[in-house]
Amino acid sequence: MKMPAVLRRRALLVGIAALTLAACKDPPKSDPAASGDGGARATGVKRLKIAVIPKGTTHEFWKSVHAGAVKASKELDVDIVWKGPLKEDDLKAQIDVVNTFVAQGVSGIVLAPLNDSALRAPVRSAAQAKIPVVVFDSDLQGDEHVSFVATDNVAAGKLAAEGMATKLGGKGKVIVLRYQEGSASTQNREKGFLDAVKGKPGLELVSDNQYGGATTESAFQKAESLLVAHKAETGAIGGIFTPNESTTFGMLQALKRSGVNKKVKFYGFDSSDKLVAALRDGDIDGLVVQDPFNMGYLAVKTMTEHLRGKPVEKRIDTGARLVDKESLDDPAVKAIMSPDLKPWLGE
Amino acid sequence: MNLRSLLGDRRPAWLGPLVAVVVVYAVFAILTPDTFLRTQNLLTMARQTVVVAICALGMTMVIVTGGIDLSTGSLVALTTVVVARLLRSGYGPVVAVLGALAVAALVGASIGALVGRLKMMPFVVTLGAMTILRGAAKGLADEQKIDCDTKGLERLLSADITAPGLWIALTLAIGVAVLLNYTRFGRHVFAVGSNEAAARLCGIDPARVKILVYMLSSLLFGVAGVMELSTLTVGDPTDSIGLELDVIAAVVIGGASLAGGEGSVIGSVLGALLMTVIKTGAVHRGMPSWTQEIATGAIIVLAVAVDRLRHARARR
Amino acid sequence: MTSPPGAASSPPEAAASGPPVLEIAGAEKSFGAVAVLRGVSLSVRRGEIHALLGENGAGKSTLMRILLGAESADRCQMKLAGEPYAPPGPGAAQRAGVVMVPQERTLCLHLTVLENVVLGLEPARAGFVRRGAAREIAERALGLVTGVGRRIPLDVRAGSLSVADQQLVEIARALAQGGAATREDGLSAKVLVLDEPTASLGQDDAARLFTRVHALKAAGLAVVLVTHFLADVRAHADRYTVLRDGTVKGEGDPKVTPPEQIVREMLGRELEAARVEPGGDARGAPHDEGVLLDVNALGGCDRPRSATFVLRRGEVLGIAGLVGSGRTELLRLIAGLDASIQGTVRVRADKGVGLLSEDRGGEGLMLSRSIAENVTLSRRGSFVSRPSALFAEGARWIAELSIKASSPAQSAGELSGGNQQKVQLARLLREDYDVLLIDEPTRGIDVASKTQVLALVRELARRGKGIVLVSSQLDELVSTCDRIAVLRRGELDAPRPASEWTEERLLLEASS
Known about the structure:
- The complex is a heterotrimer.
- By secondary structure, chain A is an alpha/beta fold.
- Chain A has 14 helices and twelve strands.
- Chain A folds into two domains: 28-151 and 292-319, Rossmann fold (3-Layer(aba) Sandwich), CATH 3.40.50.2300; 153-289, Rossmann fold (3-Layer(aba) Sandwich).
- In chain A, helix 4 (60-76) links the parallel strand 1 (49-53) and strand 2 (79-82).
- The longest helix of chain A is centred in the N-terminal third of the chain and has 24 residues, at 2-25.
- By secondary structure, chain C is of the alpha/beta class.
- Helices cover 32% and strands 23% of the residues of chain C.
- Chain C has 16 helices and 22 strands.
- Chains in contact: A-B, B-C.
């Protein structure tokens, strides 16, 4: 009587597989109404399916990218699949995700690589499978990808340094809390900032070798120690720079907890509700904001155009801007910092 | 009641970690006298130790029974998410915290039942739980951080002598130390880890002991999660990845044996403190991040090696 | 080595009289089709040491498990102090005052002596251990066991005590469980079962233990002593009962019964001459040049204490000894698996020494792996290992030793005990060792396989191997070996030719 047991097990497996598939289908792709549009099918052209792979899914930043990508997919009438690594900032997992999409055979892949060299191999295998890749947010070595859509991070870092220098009147001690080893976009921001600081004799760099790590908590702990170590509460520190959302948020918490907020000129990167509120309160002096919505939008658009046979630029700058308290209510800034995501993500 | 029994071990297994903490502290104090010795720094280190230390209390119990819990970090993250969700749905901070702790205790009871009654390997059960709970946290949080009004919870933990979190952690440490050393239940925890067959022979139900141990430890992980939320002020499903490894390291540095039957609360707390001192000291000294990682790892291996040698000498 | 242990230290006391405190009548128990107990009766009086004797499998353990409530009998009438007694579980037996110290050590070595004695009995208020009360219980129980003058500290770890002291702590714990320590005036435990209490003790420690057992007996306890040591029984027991094949085959006063009679009751055979196999040329006329193994005053950490012998090419040397005498430890020392602390082992065999472990599942075989992998597991051989060659070799050995298996890929765990043993042997043969140390080769295997395995052992000797054979089956030793030496409490006597031995003489020697 072995057969029934085997069959039962098989049935169970099938059931699990079905559930898994159903669950996978659930997250927002494009508007179902759009995929119901008979136009594409009627003309016999296969509907484009573009995989969008961010570095993570929980940062505010990626919400905006997601919304921008959805906007592009609706405008251009393509399907997108939004899938990040299972664990936040997990390089191995991201490689797996890319390989899975290559194996599935999507039309194109839009990728924000967690590491500028480790993702080369999967991108090459995508190219070999005739699946074009557009890289966005962070750069990738090599030239297998079609285009690179991102903020010019070096320039963005420099923006923060210039802003800080002006605010400090050209002199003071400066701390940089780095993000993570091997992340190209933040390293470029750090480089842009540091290069600019080195060009200003009045600014003295007191710490630039500490990394905040992947999570807010780890950044917070590092920031807290740094502030104590450099006696920030005595006013010894003039300015602080952090290169992404998690380090900025962690540093903000540490500043508030140790009562050093408003005593230092704090320049961060990226935006979220809490960071904007802090900017308004004066706990943050300036935020360099990218335009993640536009980045998501342009990345998908570039890919679609490439797939539809149009020539695309090798490098597309999505822009960055230093926002301070005064420029916060500028409508142009508002559109970048708090784009209305609801119509796109349906929240 | 002599000092040794009060501190919770027949032989001071925590003596090594204590010496290590003092020595490492002294070294950094000499290297960076102007910043490291300040009260502010002491309080900051205490605050930074709280989460790992509270988790280490639970982990000590689990490891004393000869088990292990790999789901710590995931459970802490899940707790931050549950509290944040409840706060955002309009519940008060007390209800939110109690709700999250109930979830944590339920998780612990389930793990304990699988380990105790079904006799499954704790490593496997909690490895599964680690992934399940992480997934649950992400699902519950819609894969995003949950912003919420923390309604006073943010005051729980800060680098301040009056911060309730520090005192809660201290109270819990004393509570668990007393539980392990002065109660019948505590005796049975050590007995189950030392020789399960003998415990059964003496009429003790090892499964029941294990269920309670996993439940209590998960409850402590839940408390640590509340502390974490107090720091983060958001519910973060990706928080505390790998926390369990720090916690296990603290417990092992504190003199516990992964084979069970040995462990001390004081030692585990000191182990957690030692790791904080190294991390903080390295920042004060301006040492690059990678050197801190090497130093922490080396301390773990060294601690166990010293323990081995001590055991070998005692046997001779 | 010549005087019986403890004979000087324990003057025999007057046998207890009065009505029996424990009566077992008509105990029957079957496991499936196998009847283990077929109507056993036993009665033990207050203040009596009652020895329960019998070979392995005679039913002693089952009877004791029924007494302790760990097993339920198919049919059995028990009375304790005149009242009907039928414990549903070990807890109930303890509460009634029937306690046992099992043969294997069951202390929590990380806990203190005090904590061990009161484990599971901790007096507590609101969950908090009442330390004073716990200490009182432990002191009283331990006081009963150690007597005046000698003290075991309560606050040291049990693991730091000697084996002999651990044994006393276990007895104290059993007494505490029986309620000894809850009464001011002494014992409320009625029956104490000691299962092979001296198996892991040296002579001095064993003698000391018996002084304490006599003290407990004087305090009114009934002691059931399960043991193989006839000498202990003769020196200390007031009465004995022999079990064989689930029935009582003899009882009486061991001090007046001749030991030969007790042995006969245990073995169930009339004295008979040893069967002498037509052995190889080595038999009787060992030649000096053929020495493979020269063991001189070899001693290990605990057991054995001292072993000296020479093994020659073509001979089977048997080692007889009771459980705990250090047989397995001796083989492990010779094989180099454990470190010796004294003496020398000189191996003059080019192809080395191989050990067949008594623990087939534990260290002898990889039960979850295939026969082929088990047979070919070796530290020698080339780096590359092709599965096809592996299985071909496995198949060859299956044929060679006529192992009953479906294929070389079958996992070793699926085989019967006898065939598993052949797989172990095949591995040793493939390595082609000169000296084979064979530990309990016939344990747990059927009769037909037994004969085959033993024939194989003889055949190997004929081919020029030297073999050391350890077995608790005395008939096996007598029929298979060329020479036999007796190991007693870690001391190995000089080997004598098998023709001079009978089973009875072996048992008498080993248990004296």
